Amino acid sequence: MKKLFGVTLGILTAMGGFVDIGDIVANSLTGARFGMSLAWAVVLGVVGIVLFAEMAGRVATLSTRGVFDLVRERLGARVALLNLGASFFITFLTLIAELGGVALALQLLSDVNYVLWIPLVAFLAWLVIWHVRFEPMETVFGLLGLVLLVMAVALWKLSPDWSGLWHQASQPAVTSGEGHPTYFYYAIALFGAAMTPYEVFFFSSGAVEEKWTKSDLVLNKANVYIGFPLGGLLSLMLMALATIVLLPRSIGVDHLSQVALPTTMALGKVGLAAMIIGFFATTFGAALETALSCGYTVSQYFGWQWGKMVRPREAARFHLVVLCSIIVAVLVGVTGIDPIKVTEYSIVLSAAALPLTYFPILVVANDREYMGDKVNGWLANLLGSVFLVLLVVVALATIPLMIVTRAGS
Amino acid sequence: MRRIAASALCLLAALLAGCVKTVSPARTFDAYEHKAKNTAEAVLSSVETARLTARLASRGDTFGPFTSVSISEAEEGAGHAQTIFESVQPPDRHADRLRDELSRLCTRAGDVLSDLRITARRGELDRLAERARPLRHIARRLDAFIREHE
Predict the structure, then answer these.
(1) ipTM of the assembly?
(2) Kind plus residue range of the DSSP H or E element containing B7
């Protein structure tokens, strides 16, 4: 049973990475606009994150150091500071969006304006970070997010034209009325969402928090190979449901409530309740991940003591960064800024910062001084190099596409 | 280091400039027609969302708060799209006619959506499908408008 629960770090990380508020809306939105023709971007993202998260987990386990610590060592203090600025900004934007996302889920249950929920949600997030140990935290929210698997039942009940969906996914084409720049903008958004840097910061720091040793490398693989593909599968289900129900009705997705409609159509109140619980669990889990990642990145860069496992008095600066990030996120959130728009921008911007995060991981994963005989094999290096080239292309294309398409509009 | 920081700031400024969605003017009929088509698509999306929500609510498949939120968001979405479109100056008389046609459709949609929102907030969920019936015709008209101006 302990081994079974051992994969919850990967599940929680993947839930946050693949089905946070931005992904929930982005996957549904792309399904409603492009059908399944962008499924390849999710699949590509899953392969990329599996590859690099496995490396990051292995590096963190063997070196007992967080990814950002190694980023600074390999890139030098100056370039790493730029990377810190970009990564922290993106993670912080995501934190704002996630707090808003949890509030939006509560609004669907209560009809009370989401802005009023934000301070309460933030307090709850801080309370969990402060009081709950790492393992129960990841187990509860990782497993609760699995409620979203109700979408599989909804898909089956809607009895779609499976061959049509497969055809759209396997022979992607730009939908009529949509331009190529917009198509590729959303492809980058989905790819960036799958490979968002805070996932590896959180996952590798979690491995250090849980004090993984060389014998836990199997657990690392299980987490990565089960958690992330599961997150990707949920993303594809969101896309498929939108393709089946929303696309034929010309419904474009701008709100969380629209994402729940296909499952509600198939399963009624039970489906709706499961979707809202799933939205709450995954966005709350992502809020915890991003708040902690804010603390992890800053503390690891400056070489401070960090971690939930360390007594707060000994890691005071880490906890201060987490607390201040949450407070400032609340202040921004209560201005009424649209959490969905914030996260859409954050996932696209994260695509621009990807090479700086993943390059040092690939380098250290080949360093025998840290890794001993557990350095990358030829296949991991080949795939890692191909992905790095792809990440550079994506990073260069992101901002021009964002400007040309006016953020996909 | 300063150069890197300056480049990052320039990039951020360019990004913000690109992302801010201002209402750009329409100098030609074609540009205005394109904006009209986009507005009709946004309103159609809101109308269809409300229709689906109303149908599910009348079947007893949704909760009251969810229904109320979903329909309110649809109403806001349609209203927002209409306001933005109406703030654009029509370039000629031909565009005036287009503006009148679409505005009438949007206003009718807005009226029905308001009515649905009020009904949903009163908890009369079983009456929503009946109240949403006029939206079917409006959706058809919007769809025809979109096809005509593609």
Answers:
(1) 0.85
(2) helix B2-19
